[in-house]
Amino acid sequence: VCIFFFSRVLECQGLPIVNGQCDPYATVTLAGPSRQTKVKKKTNNPHFDEVFYFEVTRPSSYNKKSHFDIEDVDEVDKMEIRVDLWNASNLKFGDEFLGELRLPLKFLRQSSSYEAWYFLQPRDNGNKSLKPDDLGSLRLNVVYTEDHVFSSDYYSPLRDLLLKSADVEPVSASAAHILGEVCREKQEAAIPLVRLFLHYGRIVPFISAIASAEVKRTQDPNTIFRGNSLTSKCIDETMKLAGMHYLQVTLKPIIDEICQVHKPCEIDPVKLKDGENLENNRENLRQYVDRIFTVITKSGVSCPTVMCDIFFSLRESAAKRFQGDLDVRYTAVSSFIFLRFFAPAILSPNLFQLTPHHPDPQTSRTLTLISKTIQTLGSLSKSKSANFKESYMATFYDYFNEQKYADAVKNFLDLISSSGRRDHKSIEQPILLKEGFMIKRAQGRKRFGMKNFKKRWFRLTNHEFTYQKSKGDHPLCSIPIENILAVERLEEESFKMKNMFQVIQPERRVLYIQANNCVEAKDWIDILTKVSQCNKKRLTVYHPSAYLNGHWLCCKATADNTPGCTPCTGGLPANIQLDIDGDRETERIYSLFNLYMPKLEKMQEACGSKSVYDGPEEEEYSTFIIDDPKETYKTLKLIIEGVGTLEQEHAQYKRDKFKKTKYGSQEHPIGDKSFQTYIRQQSEISAHSI
């Protein structure tokens, strides 16, 4: 059984002012790490309107790792949502506690949605001098959902309908797109859709299809992907799931340093503290921005494959739609990787698991200034100084008005949006990814040649892998990227040499290379794998040892063309495997369709209206995107039929559950409120039918 909650923290009124200021934020907790709202500056009546999702799973029905596990669904009644209000303090001893509220979940099981105002209460060990009435109040909206997940075959019709969404023409007539149309918020639909499509390997074609449709509807290239559309929310959710490790390896080391060292970086003359020097602060901030900019623009090879493939489709759709705008292929990608990924992670590292807590005010200010600058550097806008309303930011940005920064951003965007390319030569200028001296074993192109080891200068671009005698010399050998079929480690026993790896090419040709150390060997393997992983003829098996003295040392096979004996390792560390249950996500989507059934029926009416009348749309139907009424109607009919079938299965499950279980048994002990509620509901239904 899976139980989902989403808690919307709406607003507060009358919060206490502490030490002459009130910069409140809220934390929401349910049996695990707390989630945090943004800090609202200089107000004791903040309006948050932020949503937090929680999930509870019963292990007996779902044996994969989940957010919070419980042994019995009825234990939910003992749990509670806790909302704490804090004042973001400038004092060294930390933020001040303003008050809390605790909401037992047993109230939510009686109603799927619950909204009310609460007086904030003091903690048991909190400040006793504050009276409850002095703490202000908070309006909170909590939605409770409990799902029973059936076995996989129950979901086949609905799941198949969803998974073929990318192939439906037009995509607005697909089941997944329709879910985004009827849900109150796009994110509500995006979360289960992204997880489902990731699980079945269909996320890239789906996002490519909805992105292409959105680009076609966009009139101005400057507004491309700027709205909170289903496309934007799905890409955001994909980056959160697939890109978390990428953020850790890219940003965490320098974010940790910024949080620990506390260098003064304030560049607003009005906010300078006594004893601080404006020029020194600017230099401190410039160094931080330079370092973060460098690690980001050098991290292209670590960008997860699924993100690169999505960026490739965005780039191609934008370039095709706005052929006269040469920058749109970059801004379409930068609007996500910089604006929605790196900049928010720098601004609020605790929300991206880069830091355990909300940074102190000085560090938070430093991260805000860095985030603003990085976001502007990544935007590639022509008039960047105009992007800042603060004159001190425009002055500071003059440090970065050099072409090398724009070139670095474009090279980075080229790399992360060219992963899906089959024709690597289509990029005008090759991007240098890595170079350096290594030792290689001669490939034996001459039948009687000596296969000795020689030191060579290796160079890798997104076009080819080459080596020459020294840096700058003419290449002695060039291997096109499309000819790299696998890159794997080589066992030490082959040549009694450490840190070796092999580059496998067509016709069983293998280049054996020794790196300077184990770190370099791993870097080379990762980068070579990254640029070649979209090759159509990549191998699935390889020989972990060399072919010497008439046989393979690993499997003892005598023929040099014997297929490999070990599966290829394939992906990179950044391409983490996500722990997703497709049936659970399909059940969640069913629940959403069931919840918004009135909107599905209204959309059916809209299809009939658009098909029959060739005139202006009725106002009540104008919120729906319907490009093909006939195809959309067909899909809606299948959705409603599938939801109806699952609804009957759930009703039968509930009837069987209570009929086959004796009151007082382990499953339903005496005092089981859910059982008593069911009996009461059944009595009411029977009386109504009579």
UniProtKB/TrEMBL annotation:
The lineage of its organism: Eukaryota, Metazoa, Chordata, Craniata, Vertebrata. It comes from Dromas ardeola. The keyword Repeat applies. One of its GO terms (biological process) is negative regulation of Ras protein signal transduction. SMART domains: BTK, C2, PH, RasGAP. Keywords: GTPase activation, Metal-binding, Repeat, Zinc, Zinc-finger. Residues 185-379 form the Ras-GAP domain. One of its GO terms (molecular function) is GTPase activator activity. Residues 431-533 form the PH domain. Residues 1-118 form the C2 domain. It holds the Pfam family C2. This is RASA3 protein.
